[in-house]
Amino acid sequence: MQALYGYQQAVAADLLLAQDRIAAAFEPDLRADVAPDRRLLEGQRKLGEAQLREWHRTGELPETSGDEAEDRAVAEAVRDAADYYQKLVQKETTFHAGQLLHGAESIHDQYLHLLNMPAALLEVITEDNEREARRFTGPRFEAAATARLFGNAAVAKLLGNEQLQQSTIRRKLQWTDAEEREALREAWQKEIKPDETVQAYLAGRNTNLDATDYETDLELLRHLYKEFVFRGEALPRWLESSDVNWEENRPIVRNLVLKTLKMLPFEATEKQELMNLSANWDDDREFAETLYKQTLEDDAKAEKLIADSTENWDVERVALLDKIILKMALTEMQLFRGIPVKVTINEYIEISKVYSTPKSKQFVNGILDKLAQDLAASGEIRKSGRGLMDNQ
Questions:
Q1: What is the set of domains in the chain, with CATH numbers?
Q2: Integer Rg of the chain from CA
Q3: What is the separation of C-alpha 200 from the centre of its chain, rounded to a whole number of angstroms?
Q4: Which tens digit of pLDDT belongs to each residue from 197-246?
Q5: Contact, 221 vs 155, CB < 8 A?
Q6: What does the alpha-carbon distance between residue 28 and residue 201 come to, in Å, rounded to a whole number?
Q7: Structure pTM?
Q8: How does pLDDT run across 331-364, given as a tens digit for each residue?
Q9: In degrees, to the nearest 5, what angle opens at C-alpha 221 toward C-alphas 220 and 225?
Q10: C-alpha span between 131 and 192 (Å, rounded)
């Protein structure tokens, strides 16, 4: 949905650029020997822009009204602008398809990146301890009281995971950004170190007397993530500022991280496989790419279906996100025969509740329910597979 929304916004801007191209074609030449006819040029510009909008609406270039040089100049400028616009749109199609996959895969990168947080935290603590040692003579709290954290067996098991180590190097997921490390240092000094649970752990006091040493270490690691990465102040603020999609992706990344910690019992080895973005990312990636491309290809058809279903309502006044949601749902219902219609409708209703207007839920539900019945009756929706009788 985000890729399609970005695409729609981009092509709208591309049309303005194409109009600017026409305007540039009829700019007065101030260096000409003969003074330009500004009224004529202004008329040609307006006619050219009107013809470009007509072409954009119908897909057909208007015929010229005569053989005059002025008419030919307008026709040539419109053809040039239309070609320019089509090349831009083709680039947008490819670019936003790439952004679609990059956006999804970046969630997994963020998950792996956050798994490296304990390593970065230990480095920050070491730097602080060394700084304190240079400033003062004699033992300091920081050097003595953080020793247990450096011996945390769960942290060692996590950081010793071979898949994490290889992925971190290959995809450059270390905590090397100066601002990011400063955010982690702030979190340590102001939030983590003063925390009662952390203080009890560092002091060797176990709140759960029945837990083994490893279970205590693992519980502390969970606490660090839950309270200071996915809640708290400094780290969430940094994550939100560095990733515009963080607030949306946060629940997914949190789920991946916490499930990973559940997969790290004492018996886990360095070969333990980490979480994937989905159960079968190759299939999910193909689904996303196909849905994106087919939704664009069927745009005109879906636009007409929506327009015919919104009686007494100008389709141009429908919120852009609502139109994108409806078009994606229509494509999914018709293209993916193994997904029940009701599942598709419910999924897109949920999407509209999160991303669109307060009234979108009822609007999307009503339009999709009507169109699903019409398309099933005409045979354009055909479902097959177990539990999909009667196209339900």
A1: 2-104 (no CATH), 116-262 (no CATH), 298-391 (1.10.940.10)
A2: 30
A3: 39
A4: 999 999 887 666 566 899 999 999 999 999 999 999 999 999 999 988 89
A5: yes
A6: 77
A7: 0.74
A8: 999 999 899 999 999 999 999 998 888 888 998 9
A9: 115
A10: 19
